[in-house]
Write a structure and sequence with these properties.
The complex is a heterodimer. Chain A is an alpha/beta fold. Chain A has two domains: 81-149, Ubiquitin-like (UB roll) (Roll), CATH 3.10.20.310; 152-309, Rossmann fold (3-Layer(aba) Sandwich). Chain A has helices spanning 22-31, 34-57, 60-78, 95-105, 118-126, 196-205, 241-255, 279-286, 293-298, 304-309; strands spanning 84-85, 87-91, 111-112, 131-139, 142-149, 152-158, 161-166, 171-175, 186-189, 213-219, 223-228, 232-235, 262-266, 274-277. In chain A, strand 10 and strand 11 form a beta hairpin. The N and C termini of chain A lie far apart (167 Å). Chain B is of the alpha+beta class. Among the domains of chain B are: 118-193, 2-Layer Sandwich (Dna Ligase, domain 1), CATH 3.30.1490.110; 265-332, Nucleotidyltransferase, domain 5. In chain B, the strands form five sheets. Chain B has a five-stranded mixed beta sheet with strand order 3-2-1-6-11, sandwiched between helices. In chain B, helix 2 (83-101) crosses helix 4 (194-206) and helix 7 packs antiparallel against helix 11. The longest helix of chain B is centred in the C-terminal third of the chain and has 26 residues, at 322-347. The radius of gyration of chain B is 24 Å and the shape is globular. The two termini of chain B are 37 Å apart. Classes of the chains: A alpha/beta, B alpha+beta. Chain A binds chain B through residues 6-8, 11-15, 17-20, 22, 24-26, 28-29, 32-33, and chain B through 70-71, 88-89, 91-92, 94-95, 98-99, 102-104, 207-208, 278-279, 281-282, 285, 305-307, 309, 317.
Chain lengths: 311, 444
């Protein structure tokens, strides 16, 4: 049977070329806009993810659970034995001070080194009066505290009692009685602790008189009085007291000034030292009868000014 | 005229913006097909030695990155008759081209073939203020051209300064900087039907596109089909399209005349359809496959089955000889060419130094057309193909794409037009400024 195929291929229809709808056309143009593409491919996922996270975290219980989980992980890591601190060793301090420092830092052992606040521990150790400096470090499961103690230089007498102060004037410790530290000089008066360096200079200058010195008294938070035994008082100037002390020593060496019956030497005016005589010396000086020959020989000269002129 | 000036300037600005962005679309709205090319301009405009005077004469490197064509809908004689259909066709083709280029285009340069173009030759002269010709003088002489009555409802599409003359020296391309007393210029003005432009504008606007330029397809196919010496020495480009046949005459690289005959390949097809009683699609197919205009003895023996879908044996097995087909086609093609001949005669084509005629367009592919055209139009006839441009698909290199390719060249380096020059200051609507000055004088 012969095929009845067409001699001519089917009258072709025009190639199908449907027009896009306005919407399709606009969507295509929109999609080809670079800004829109970037927004769609990056901005939209970011927005969706952040919205989801925000929505999930909006619930308090979920947030608490999340933080609890985070804390658990964190604790389990921090509590590993590698980070454990089980010993506090304190060096450079007397046993009582070491105990005080230990109590003051208040570290409960064992503890993870992550949870140690070394700065706070150092601050609390240094808050103690007797501690001048503390160095803290963690080494091999051990918290090492190196303490530099304050060295007491003076005894300070106040209305509240006695206290030890170091060379900078900082309080070191309280003191029960003066007899506990007879080796240290005594200072007193308002603002005495602030002028401790000056006091030490004065005491160093007055070293030949050490056996006679009772102490230093701060007058009006301005100048020092050097108090000797036999109720002798040396009134030192506010400015440059050390040279005044040296001059006093020179006078003493030349004229045995301090060995005489004098209650006070006023050195405040460097041009004119003034003496205050004791009652007996005064009587001799005035020629009153009870003067003994020995005393009279001492008070041959009358005025302090003339003393200076004597060789 | 100022409105037109502003509108054309706005289009030029749009074109500049598009070039800055680097992507522009070419839209050729024809009767049988609508073509769209997307051009990418890469690299700055390099200053090539230019023929013209104005600022637009620059060369831009471009490359075709998207191309699409579709069957035209709703266009007859190169004019839009069904807006919605045409809008859809434009949408189709722009979408396909955008998809190929994968880039969004906003600016489009369009051309169309119909709208009854008319050419006018304008002349104007002006005395130079200074003895040296400046750009302002060029603008003044262009403004001095007296515009003829172009008729109601018509719009100027092209206004090319064709020739400048300084005193008695004519044929100057660029008179700037030269010395003389009187500057004269010839301008070629081409007007089209305003309603057609309005329709096209509306369609393009409905597709969310901005119009960055408008050209006549006769002009742009001349740009792409005529080689340089033909443009220089004088040649006519006959763009035989589907619904219209465009004629453009070039001399000294300027179009000096343009016209269109409202006859084209579609008329041949409809003749075949009517003569053989077959559908238009079949007629089109037979025309492209077996058509011709020169009958030979061989053609009597070559039988063509024209078929039918009626179910009637006698009708479905019809056959015709190729001679019969040529007998139907030839009178119509002759008529088109005769019409072209008469238009060329009216334009004074014989006066040109070289009377080269170049046939291009889809309907020029009929075998034997060159011999027939030589008989009617003169001996110097050749078939033209458009210039090669970079990136153009192979399918779009035929003569049917002459105007599309020409529009690319037009987009890349347009010739100077009247509106590329500034309005001379004395013509400028300076009333507001004058009024302000007067107010100051009166009150102070």
């Amino acid at each position: 049977m012969q095929s009845l195929g067409r001699a001519l291929p089917l009258p072709l229809k025009a190639r199908r070329d449907p027009a896009p709808s306005r919407l399709t056309y606009r969507m295509q143009r929109l999609w080809l806009t670079p800004a829109f593409r970037i927004g769609f491919r990056i901005g939209l996922p970011v927005a969706v993810v952040s919205l989801a996270i925000w929505g999930w975290l909006a619930d308090d219980a979920r947030r608490a659970a999340l933080w609890a989980g985070v804390d658990a992980v964190r604790n389990s890591f921090e509590d590993r034995p590698e980070f454990r601190v089980s010993l506090v060793s304190i060096t450079g301090a007397a046993p009582e001070l070491a105990d005080a420092v230990r109590a003051r830092m208040g570290i409960r052992l064992p503890i993870s080194s992550w949870k140690l606040d070394l700065d706070a521990a150092r601050a609390s150790a240094e808050a103690l009066d007797a501690v001048e400096k503390a160095r803290i470090r963690v080494q091999g499961g051990e918290l090492r505290v190196e303490i530099t103690e304050r060295v007491p230089a003076l005894v300070w007498r106040t209305e509240r009692g006695l206290a030890l102060v170091d060379a900078t004037g900082h309080r070191v410790a309280g003191l029960g009685s003066r007899e506990d530290r007879p080796d240290l000089p005594l200072i007193a008066g308002e603002g005495a602790d602030r002028a401790v360096p000056e006091a030490l200079e004065i005491l160093q200058a007055a070293a030949p008189l050490t056996a006679r010195i009772r102490g230093l008294v701060r007058q009006g938070d301005r100048r020092w009085d050097l108090v000797l035994d036999r109720d002798q008082t040396i009134l030192l100037p506010a400015i440059d007291p050390v040279s005044a002390v040296e001059r006093l020593l020179a006078l003493d060496q030349a004229d045995m000034l301090l060995a005489r019956d004098i209650t006070a030497v006023d050195l405040r005016d460097p041009r004119r030292p003034v003496l205050r005589l004791g009652a007996h010396a005064l009587a001799v000086f005035r020629g009153t009868p009870e003067v003994t020959a020995a005393d009279a020989s001492i008070d041959a000269t009358t005025d302090a000014t003339s003393l200076e002129k004597t060789p | 005229m100022t409105d037109l000036y502003q509108a054309q300037r706005a289009m030029r600005n749009m074109r500049k913006a598009a070039l800055q962005r680097g992507v522009i679309a070419i839209l050729d709205v024809g009767t049988s097909k609508i073509g769209c090319l997307i051009l990418r301009f890469d690299g700055a405009e390099t200053d090539r030695e230019t023929e013209g005077v104005g600022p637009m004469a620059g060369q831009a490197q471009f490359r075709v990155i998207g191309a699409a064509t579709t069957r035209s809908r709703g266009v007859r004689f190169g004019e839009i008759t069904a807006m919605n259909e045409t809008e859809r066709a434009i949408r189709t083709v722009v979408r396909a081209a955008q998809k190929m280029a994968s880039v969004r285009v906003d600016h489009v340069i369009a051309c169309f073939s119909g709208a009854e173009p008319r050419s006018y030759g304008l002349a104007g002269d002006v005395a130079l203020q200074d003895s040296v010709v400046t750009e302002n003088d060029v603008a003044r002489v262009l403004a001095a051209c007296d515009v003829p009555d172009i008729g109601q409802g018509r719009e100027v599409l092209h206004a090319h300064p064709v020739n400048f003359a300084l005193d008695h020296r004519s044929g100057l391309g660029d008179p700037r900087g030269q010395i003389g007393n009187r500057l004269a210029c010839d301008m070629h003005l081409m007007t089209v039907d305003a309603a057609v432009i309005q329709n096209l504008l509306h369609c393009i606007k409905r597709c969310d596109l901005d119009l960055a330029g408008l050209a006549s397809s006769a002009y742009v196919s001349g740009i792409s089909s005529l080689v340089e010496d033909e443009q220089e020495l004088g040649a006519a480009c006959i763009d035989m399209g589907g619904g219209t046949t465009g004629i453009s005459i070039f001399l000294k690289k300027h179009m000096i005349y343009a016209d269109s005959v409202r006859l084209g390949g579609d008329h041949v097809t409809s003749d075949i359809s009517k003569g053989l009683q077959i559908p238009l699609a079949v007629a089109e197919r037979i025309k492209t496959k077996h058509g011709g205009v020169q009958a030979t003895g061989m053609d009597d023996r070559e039988m063509i089955e024209i078929g039918g879908d009626s179910g009637d044996w006698e009708k479905d097995r019809r056959q015709i000889s190729r001679t019969e087909l040529i007998g139907i086609m030839r009178p119509r093609v002759e008529e088109i060419l005769e019409e072209v001949r008469s238009r060329l005669d009216v334009a004074g084509f014989e006066a040109l130094p070289s009377q080269q005629i170049v046939l291009t367009g889809g309907a020029s592919q009929i075998p034997g057309l060159d011999m027939l055209a030589a008989k009617i139009l003169g001996q110097r006839v050749r078939m033209g193909r458009p210039l090669r441009v970079q990136g153009l698909p192979q399918a779009a290199t035929g003569p049917a794409f002459a105007s599309t390719v020409g529009l690319c060249l037009f987009a890349a380096h347009p010739q100077d037009e009247w509106w590329d020059f500034d309005i001379p200051s004395e013509r400028y609507p300076a009333r507001s400024l004058k009024r302000a000055v007067k107010w100051f004088k009166d009150n102070w």
